[in-house]
Amino acid sequence: MGDRRLILIVDDEPQIQRFLGHALVAAGYDTCLAGNGAEALAQAAAQEPDLMILDLGLPDMNGKEVIERLRLRSDMPVIVLSAHDQEMEKIMALDLGADDFVAKPFGIGELLARLRASLRPRRAARSEQVRQGGLVIDLAAHQVSRDGEVLRLTPKEFDLLAALVGNAGRVMTHHKLLQLVWGPAHVDDVPYLRVFIGQLRQKLERDPARPELILTEPGVGYRWAATEGGPAEPGKQP
Amino acid sequence: MPRFGGFLGAALLLALVTLAADRLHELLPENVSILLFLTAVLISAAAFGFWVGIASAVGAIAAFNFLFVEPHFTLHIAQPQDLITLAVFLLAASLTGLLAGRLREQVDAAKGRAAALEVVSRVSGDLAGAASAEDVARIALRHLHELAQGPAVALVPERDGLRLLAALPQGYAPVASDLDAADIAFRRRRAEFAAARGWAGSRLSFYPLHADGGGTVLGHARLDPDRRDREWRETGIEVVLRQSEQALQRLALAEAAEAERRRAVSEETRAALLASLSHDLRTPLATILGAVTTLRELGATLPPAAQADLLAAIEEETGRLARYVEKLLQLTRLQAGIAAQMAWVDAGDAMQAAVARARRSWPKARITAEAGPLPMIRAEAGLLEQAIFNLVENAVKYSQGPIRVTGAVEGQELVLTVLDSGRGLPPAIAEWLASDEAVGAPPGAGLGLPICKGITRALGGRMTAQRGSSGGAALAIRLPIPKPRA
Q1: Which residues of A touch B290 (CB under 8 A)?
Q2: Domain A125-224: which CATH class?
Q3: Residues carrying CATH 3.40.50.2300, chain A
Q4: 0.90 exceeded by the pTM?
Q5: What residue segments make up the domains of chain B, in order of their start?
């Protein structure tokens, strides 16, 4: 079973570890466990897992610190488990390099979807074509069309779209998007970002009032709707 | 004006010197005798003042002239040198008298100043200890009485006017004209001074204390305008009034700070409760939802043992949730201040019920109950059981070894103790449990222990936290045993 992915579960609650363990094994992953931040960092170094599920309410250090220290030597995907009163910590964790989050309590399906999105390699933005819901996004040619009709996007709109599509299924914080598209000087211009997201939705979504492609994560950022299997799966490079 | 005693003293001194000079007439030359007289004059002037000195000088010249100047035993002044002697005597006497008088004035003023300063220096120390506005008024009153050297009163407002709070000397009663002046001072919020001596009006000066929301008015007798230390006493009174206002301000601030502290404590309790809610409610919910969705979505691929384990986890967490909700309801009830429904309760039954429930909740824990027959007490059975259960839960959470629940009678108290073999309570929590504080449990106390304390207090008892004989914590609920009716 050498191709099974190894997931490190970091949570101080044995009950959470218990059901996550069963669920992940049944879903085809191997698991290892850690009950606090120090143990998590030690396990991450020793076992080199493919992904870390990190609870933000650890007894010994906050999640932000775990991610900061982990990112010094590893870029393994991290999904944080957060409670509603940990909004700030969650956003900081994402800005510091966590890949996604799931709010407690969660159904196992939601977590597994995030897990798959985070384990999928990031697209090489230059050389891919994405097909989704009648939309064809040619990242190399900087061209977007729907049902054969070319849509006109400004260069910034296209950059923003590329940043979202390149991380399909993963949450992109305001901070990350602003930095990627407009540069480090504009990381706080969230209203600016909202305007561009609005414009993109006008051009891409079938019903801009009920977006199906660019999803909002309130207070956190945006997410390009993940597609798993079926005809909407990102087109492979011919 | 010099008093009669001064003249008498000077006369006696002069008589003494005259007698001595007469007796020693044979031995002493005339010019030495006259020095004796001069000495007597200087002493009188220094001791009794200017006018006594002058009188003494005249008397001395007369006596000297009578005794020693030819013709003897007459007051006849024959030679001009006698007139010069008289002039010298008068000059010396008046100079000495004036100097001595000025000195005495300075001494008097210094004494008055010292007295006023002494009061002033005491007043701030006294006021620092005042715990209420009434204390402030009484302390200020004492010092005003001392400084004014006359009656002083303190009045506080009542529904329709001012009421005498205290007066010094004891029993002093202000008359109607005084009270009118006090009323004016109170309503106009400014000082109302006593009428001058001999004029109609208030005998007392009144000052409202502005800093006092309650509106205390202090009054003192008019100062004697002839006293040389009057200015100092006035200053002293001003200081007393100012310090009293400051003391009132300090009290108001301290009160505000205390209210703020209480608010912060209740805020803290609320925050601790929220944190506990967040943790104790979310974990079971997350486990239940996670396990249920796992069973539903991945059931086909789960081995039977894993399925059974997930079902067990759901059952355990549901129980945990139920216990937690029960605690929350109890806490809400305690905080709402709903009184316990007291009835005759067999504490042994409540104890056994709590232990049985604990054994069901934690089948692996080793819990024993030891009690002989216990007296009936007044309590609410459900609450008492919950309190004991919370103690057992605490023991299960923080210790691995056996847990003993005991019941015993100690004096007039029924003592229900839960002993564990853990590391003992953190001192701050133990101290808080045994204290009278109803709120403000230290962080880390959780919900169970504060609820246990709340229940115990609602049942009229108290809690103690000690170290058990086996080293762990010994937490006890102590309830009063009602006296049998005669």
Answers
A1: 16, 19-20, 23, 105-108, 111
A2: mainly alpha
A3: 6-119
A4: no
A5: 4-110, 340-480
Query: Helix (H, G, I), strand (E, B), or coil: what is residue B198?
Result: coil
A39: exposed, middle or buried (C-beta count within 10 Å: 0-12, 13-18, 19+)? middle
Tokens of B486: 């005669």
A57 touches chain B (CB under 8 A): yes
Residues of chain A with Cβ-Cβ distance to B283 below 8 Å are 13, 15-16
ipTM value for the complex: 0.79
Residues of chain A with CATH 1.10.10.10: 125-224
Nearest CA in chain A to B285: A105
Give the Cα-Cα-Cα angle A117, A121, A123 (nearest 5 degrees): 100
From the number of C-beta atoms within 10 Å of its C-beta (0-12, 13-18, 19+), residue B450 rates as: buried
Percent of chain A with pLDDT over 90: 45
3-state DSSP assignment of residue B213: coil
Contacts of B397 in chain A (CB under 8 A): none
Tell me the per-residue pLDDT of B417-444, one tens digit each, with 9 for 90 and over: 999 988 888 888 888 888 877 666 776 7
Under 8 Å between Cβ of B464 and B476: yes
**Predicted pLDDT at B270:** 67
In angstroms, the separation between the Cα of residue B443 and the nearest Cα of chain A is 14
Closest residue on chain B to A111 (Cα): B290
CB-side exposure of A184: number of CA atoms within 13 Å? 0
Residue A32 has pLDDT above 90, yes or no: yes
Cβ neighbours of A26 in B, within 8 Å: 294, 298, 301-302, 306
* C-alpha distance from residue A150 to each of A125, A132, A137, A139, A144 (Å): 19, 15, 10, 14, 6
CA-based nearest residue in chain B for residue A21: B306
CA distances to A119, B40, B339 from B25, in Å: 136, 17, 107
Residue, of B467 and A10, whose pLDDT is higher: A10
Categorize the per-residue pLDDT at B180 as very low, low, confident or very high, splitting at 50, 70 and 90: confident
Nearest residue of B to residue A23, measured between CA atoms: B294
For chain A, the residue count is 238
Classify domain B340-480 by CATH number.
3.30.565.10
Superfamily of domain A6-119 in CATH is Response regulator (3.40.50.2300)
Contact A23 B298 (CB under 8 A): yes
Provide the number of CB pairs (under 8 Å) joining chain A to chain B. Answer: 70
Pairing of strands A78-82, A51-55: parallel
B160 or B375, which is more confident: B375
- Residue B405: what pLDDT? 94
**Which residue, chain included where needed, has tokens 């004014």?**
B148
Residues 72-111 of A with CB under 8 A from B: 83, 85, 104-109, 111
- In the structure, what pLDDT confidence band is assigned to residue A64 with cuts at 50, 70 and 90? confident
Nearest-Cα distance to chain B for A116, in Å, is 15
